[in-house]
Write the structure tokens for this entry.
Amino acid sequence: MNYLFVFLGGGLGSICRFGIAQWIANYKFQFPWATITANVLACLVLGILVGLNLKGKISSPMGFFLMVGFCGGFSTFSTFTNETFQLMATAEWGKAFANIFISLAVCLLSLFAESNWRGRDPIFPKILALCYFKWIIESS
């Protein structure tokens, strides 16, 4: 039965990732913002879920559906790797290393911050998301 939960969550996460990619494609950025956005959001969601799971507030089936399925389908390491490789192949080294740094640093920070949330209003991800999207729009 856990396979079914992972399957359904993964499909939903993939559809959400595709939606973000389509939405961000309208802006015609020369940087892989759609992948970074999906990965950061997936890490924020996973961080919240890890925090809730540590408190015993997520059932095992819901954990498989959301943590393994949805977050696994929503985040995309293979696309991140391919986009970084393409930037390197075209000698866009600054963008390639920025992609690596931003992806790793922001995703790790997001997961850490949210997994350590202990019942407070999670204002940090809201502020981070607003700053992140404002920075994306202004840097294009």
User: Anything to note?
Assistant: The two ends are 45 Å apart (CA to CA).
